[in-house]
Amino acid sequence: MSAASSLLSEEQFLCSICLDVFTDPVSIPCGHNFCKNCITQHWDVSVQFQCPMCKKLFYRRPELQVNTFISEMAAQFRKSAQMKASSCPDQRCAKPGEVPCDVCTGTKLKALKSCLVCLASYCETHLEPHQTMTGLKKHMLINPVENLQDRMCKEHDKPLELFCKTDQMCVCLLCTVLDHKSHDIVPLKEEYKGKKAELGKTEAEIQQKIQERQLKIQEIKHSVELSKEDADREIADSVRVFTALMQSVERGQAELTETIEEKQKTTEKQAEGFIKELEQEISELMKRTAEVEQLSRTEDHLHLLQSFPSLNTPPHTKDWTEVSVHRSSCEGTVRRAVAQLEETLRKEMEKLLEAELKRVQQYAVDVTLDPDTAHPELILSDDGKQVKDGDVKKNLPKTPERFSQCANVLGKQNFSSGRFYYEVQVKGKTEWDLGVARGSISRKGKITLSPKKGYWTICLMNGNEYKALAGPSVLLSLKSKPQKVGVFVDYEEGLVSFYDVDAAALIYSYTGCTFTEKLYPFFSPCPNDGGKNSAPLIISPVNHTD
């Protein structure tokens, strides 16, 4: 039997109705064979008793004859298929999540393809008819998918072969002449190409977004690294400064203690000398007292008279009336030690401020003046780097951006994140205002500069009076008159700092600010004052110190 089966094609033992190897094969009068269940169900629903293969018509339902030969051959083919499946990885049993063969009985093998015409999935064995039979070769095969019934029109039970562009849905042939009549209908393949192109575009956009976010991750990581470097540097600076201060305190305390102890030792040594000298004089006086007392008791007239001259005169002693031991004085010693500590702290602060200024200068930006915001009396240089008051109002458009009453002007550039720094030369001026301002500030009428009004500024008044216009104003005590002022802003930190660039000194800092909108550099050269304040404010290039 096995030798015979090897000479025959498996196609000869497939039921033409279920396309599987015969199960309980039966023969009908025309000689064709089918699974008993397949031909029975076929005739149960058919009006006529007709052979599915040759179309021969029977006037009455034929009796079904069991074909034992084909039954035995079919069993051999099933056994052969199972052996083949066990030796071929692609023929393994379907696992959870994999598409099983719809034809396999008993153990379901993994499907290799799904047929969009038959709406069934097939393993390698049951796929063979679609690869060999002329009629089945035209069927469209795809990689195995589940729920093939979803590819049938639920209303007409026909394959979904077309796409309605009007309603954006898949339809069958009957849908186009009934529910979707006069709609824009195209084949699935055509719409598939269009949608696939859109998916390609979508995929490209998604990939771009992925790349953008990967770059953002790198940017954030880089920011964290820079932040860590800043933190490490600040920690190192703090350790250095506080170590120096603690060493200075310890050294000052030790020197102070040594000085006080030396003074006390000197006092004690002096006192010991005085006491020793006094004790010696006391001893001499007591000795003379004993001799006088002894002589006064003598009865020898001659002896008393001869000894009297030497004993009547007291021994030579020191006049102790003006002699005293002064208490060691430590007044001013502690104060001088603290003053020395303050000097050490001042020097360390100077080093820190110099390093701080170098760091903030790394955030230098190019700032130019915006003529559209300048008060009509102001004169701006062609390069937008200088501004002064001209005493004469020019006839300029009264735009919302322009300051109408106060001699102010903003920078063209604005900042809504990060850090930025610029420097302004104020040399030769008796009055000026500098800082940053919110974009929404009022520019009409009289203006009060304060953080509450949207201004973070410092100013010079009357030639030598410096103030931070913090609302209320803070009078600033500066060691030197700044010739160039540096302005630094850390948007996220809420910090605005002003520096005397030449002296590398901090003038003033606004801290804990809340910024929610764009910030603009702010300048006011103030009135000309009859030529006394005619020097311009000059936005200077930043010279990065080594």
Description:
- This protein has helices at 2-7, 36-45, 68-87, 124-132, 134-137, 173-177, 188-296, 301-312, 333-360; strands at 25-27, 33-35, 49-50, 57-58, 65-66, 113-115, 120-122, 141-142, 162-164, 169-171, 185-187, 378-380, 386-389, 409-410, 419-425, 432-438, 455-461, 465-468, 474-476, 484-490, 495-500, 505-510, 519-524, 537-540.
- The chain has three domains: 1-84, 2-Layer Sandwich (Herpes Virus-1), CATH 3.30.40; 204-357; 364-540, Sandwich (Jelly Rolls).
- By secondary structure, the chain is an alpha+beta fold.
- It is 37% helix and 17% strand.
- The protein starts with a helix and ends in a 6-residue tail after the last strand.
- The strands form six sheets. Strands 12-13-24-15-20-21-22 form a seven-stranded antiparallel sheet, covered by helices on one side.
- It contains nine helices and 24 strands.
- α7 (188-296) runs antiparallel to α8 (301-312) and α7 (188-296) runs antiparallel to α9 (333-360).
Largest sheet: 7 strands, antiparallel
Helix tally? 9
Helix content: 25-40%
| Oligomeric state of the chains in view | single chain
Number of domains in the coordinates?
3
What's the CATH topology name of the largest domain? Answer: Jelly Rolls
Strand content: 15-25%
Using only CA atoms, what is the Rg?
55 Å
Mean pLDDT: 87
Strand order of the largest sheet: 12-13-24-15-20-21-22
- In CATH, the architecture of the largest domain is Sandwich
Q: Shape, please?
A: elongated
User: Superfamily at the CATH H level of the largest domain?
Assistant: SPRY domain
